[in-house]
Amino acid sequence: MKAENRTGSSTIRVLVVDDEPDIRELLDLTLARMGLACDCAGSVAEARRLLAAGSYQLCLTDMRLPDGEGIELVRHISEHCEDLPVAVITAHGSMENAVAALKVGAFDYLAKPVSLDQLRALVKSAINLPQQTSVLAVAGEGDSEGGQLFGNSPAIRQVRDMIERVARSQAPVYVSGESGSGKELAARLIHRLGARREKPFIAVNCGAIPENLMESEFFGHRKGAFTGAESDREGFFKAANGGTLFLDEVADLPLAMQVKLLRAIQEKCVRKIGATTEEPVDVRIICATHQDLKALVEQGKFRQDLYYRLNVIGLRMPALRECREDIPQLAEHLLRRLAAAAGVAVPRLTPAALRVLCDHTFPGNVRELENTLERALALLSGASIDAADLQLTPQTCDETGSQSLPVAGHASLQDHLDQLERQMIVDALQKTRYNRTAAAKLLGITFRSLRYRMERLGLNE
Fold first, then answer.
1. Last residue of some domain: 394, 427, 442?
2. pLDDT of residue 8
3. DSSP codes of every residue in 142-168
4. 190: CB partners within 8 A, 6+ apart
5. pLDDT at 143
6. Where would I find the beta strands (DSSP E) of 311-367?
């Protein structure tokens, strides 16, 4: 089949892949009215030829094609044209296919019959994607309003890379991690780096909304719909229209509300309480919880279909104890911010204070670190913060000399491993009269690895 082409003055080109001439014509006409050039193909093979020969800013592909599945084309584009956003068009009722396409790299999806309003919104989002320049490229970049992701540990670098890649998609994101590990910060960064950055970011704590008000809060209501409804009200979905809706502690949603949320996400429309018609909405869903959603699904406390719809892309935020080498830089940043807010000079963290911070388990993660520093700053009488000013419970030593956590604590596996590693390094140094090269050889690691581990564990002194 010969590729159909509509030229135009715009340099933005869209590739449409569908074996139905009527669909191609509809999409071609709609895109032309938006001032975009359009090339059309009727098969996977022809689409690949066009991709190899030309440059496109968006690809729209049907899921069922004569010589293969649209998901094959999505994989091909993800591997060979990684900067090209691709959206899939799927039959109504075949949302599993759309979710599968999102998992392998699709930007977004449209359900048949295609809504032209949703098509226009999708195209605008795709062509407004930012270039591959990122405020996350260097630790510490970014503005104070949007927040920053500090650190250069392997765990943080992995999160930073994942956020950059996820931001170019429209797929739902499930952010997991312990309380205080920065889940909302990750969600805000995804929004700030994506095509929706100029639109609203609405954060909702699902556990803070009374159950009897949830439907009204999420979907809105008409005046007089119930006692106390004195005026029309827009819900969270309409408030976030065009932007991002962040559902924090989504595990706290009751089952009845989970059903309604699933329909709103799947159909991309909401109905206000008291209304007779549905209104289209265009939002990206990012959810988070410190609970294990998969375990809740197995226990019957969270709907499986909603779980798979929300968990298209998973992002895990590491606990602070998993990236201890980032604590000094993060602590300095938090101190500068706290001191600026209090209108005082920024105090210095002594080496002893930094050792205590790096050794502490911080079950409350970054939030606990910030609270610790804020308390120390409020009670500080000098120009520097020492270990005692932090008021953290010190680690104790057992009769063998090994460090251990207080009995009342809840040590993680990583904490025990760190303690074991620390003791092995100390033993090796003592046996070699503190000759680091010999100690590294005794431990079976490189000198560079030993130096890194000693810095991480606060053993340099």
1. 394
2. 41
3. S-TTT------SHHHHHHHHHHHHHHT
4. 163, 166, 167, 173, 244, 286
5. 37
6. 313-316, 348-349
Q: Which residue did the predictor score with more confidence, 334 or 448?
A: 334
pLDDT tens column, 410-421: 456 666 677 778
Asked if residue 303 and residue 326 are part of one domain, the reply reads no
Q: Say if CB 195 and CB 128 are below 8 A apart.
A: yes
Does 100 score more than 70 pLDDT? yes
Cis peptide before 113 (omega within 30 of 0): yes
Q: For position 146, what pLDDT does the model report?
A: 43
Residue 370 φ/ψ, nearest 5 degrees: -65, -45
Q: For residues 245 and 102, state if they share a domain.
A: no
Neighbours of 342 (CB within 10 A): 11
Output the pLDDT for position 92: 59
pLDDT in tens, 113-149: 888 888 888 898 888 766 544 445 333 333 333 467 8
**295 and 163 together in one domain:** yes
Q: What is the DSSP letter of 138?
A: S
Give the predicted TM-score (pTM) of the model: 0.72
**Coil, strand or helix at 403:** strand
Q: Whole-angstrom Cα distance, residue 101 to residue 115?
A: 19
SS (H, E, C) 61-73: EECEECCEEHHHH
Provide the domain count of the chain.
4
CATH of residue 337's domain is: 1.10.8.60
Domain, as residue range, for 443: 410-457
Phi, psi values for residue 132, rounded to 5°: -80, 50
Q: Find residue 69's DSSP bridge partners.
A: 64
Q: What CATH number corresponds to the domain at position 73? A: 3.40.50.2300
User: What span, in angstroms and rounded, lies between the C-alpha atoms of 175 and 183?
Assistant: 6
For residue range 318-350, list pLDDT tens digits in order: 999 999 999 999 999 999 999 999 999 999 999
* Comparison of pLDDT for 245 and 112, the residue scoring more: 245
Burial state string for 86-125 with b = 16 or more CB within 10 A and e = fewer than 16? bbbbbeeeebebbbbbbbebbbbbbbeebeeebbebbbeb
Hey, what are 433's tokens? 């009269």
Percent of the chain with pLDDT over 90: 55
Are residues 82 and 209 located together in one domain of the fold?
no
Residue 402 has pLDDT above 70, yes or no: no
Helix then strand count (H, E) for the chain reads: 19, 19
Boundary residue ending a domain (109, 127, 145): 127
